[in-house]
Amino acid sequence: MRQAYRCGPLEIWVEADTTVLREKVAGQLHLFNVPWRGPLTSIGLEVRESDEALASCAGNYLVCARMRVDANGSTLRAACPSGAWCEQFADGVSWRIRVPRRAADIWTLTDIESLLSLVLTTGWRALGWVPVHSGTVVKAGRCAILCAESGGGKTSLTAAMIRKGFCTLGDDKLLLRIGDDGAPELRALVHTFNLHPKTREWFPEVGDLERLPTYSEWTEKRKVHPEAIWPGRTLTGARPTHLLQLVRREEPGGVAIRPLTQSEVVSILLHQTVVPNERLTASRILAAIVTTARALRGFRVEIGTDAYREEGCLAPVEAAMS
The CATH number of the domain where 195 resides is what? Predict the structure, then answer.
């Protein structure tokens, strides 16, 4: 039986042959919970257990931590260390994923996430969108892209700004493109926050997060919907005007801020997306990033431990965005 999942501008039609695979795919694709209007592009995906192996990929298109991707003409093939692999068909909108029969193994499940990510990002790029690993805060026509290393505090700052009257497109996953008028625009993909239980120390309204299950084997964070905590604070789109690079200081103190140069903004934005080796795809991504950077005012924001306990700690950030 085929099941449809809406992931931004894509509609992914999935056929999986085991309960483990169906649940894994559903768990990943259900994360994309922001509805998009208009016609969606259909992608077909067949996911099966198999003893069939794929010759190792050299990574001429892309090399990630647990995935190597080769371009074979206009199609892609990817292989992972667990033996899981995927292949794009010549029509460009059909894929198959094959996993070893030990599909419940934690590393195999992790590799399935990587392969699903490849299917999604390829589809989004084909429609002119650049996936960006960043958060946002929005208020009074101003929209800041929040950039940080994984675990660098994007969600905490987003929550703190929401308490100050800001809205958000999300804390982690966005799509970026240059509109017909030449200006950058952002669209939301995920309206779910990944919050650590200790967040309650700063924002008691989040409630007892310990009662919720962890959302992965690798973290203590819990998955919650911001609308359940701060109603009316999620948006589906915005035009970016600022970039905030978040840096945690492992010492007490509030928030310190300094301007970024445009070249720094370009570099920071580039680190929030994945740029394949294929020239045409890379050039489109780079053009979108550079055009976006030119439209932004950038600031480096250093945040001390327990900064959010201090009343008015966000005043420098609000002033920069005003």
Answer: 3.40.50.300
Type of residue found at 97: I
**Would the pTM of this model clear 0.85, i.e. be above it?**
yes
Burial of 95 (0-12, 13-18, 19+ CB in 10 A): buried
One DSSP character per residue, 32-57 reads ------S--EEEEEEEEE-S---PPP
Distance CA 249, CA 251 (A): 5
Q: Which of 122, 48, 110, 44 is nearest to 80 (CA)?
A: 110
Contact, 57 vs 114, CB < 8 A? Answer: no
The verdict on 296 and 150 lying in the same domain is yes
Chain length of the chain:
322
- State how far the Cα of 244 lies from the Cα of 146, in Å rounded to an integer: 5
pLDDT in tens, 156-189: 899 999 999 999 999 889 999 999 999 999 999 9
Helix (H) or strand (E) holding 10: strand 10-16
At residue 114, the 3 state secondary structure works out as: helix
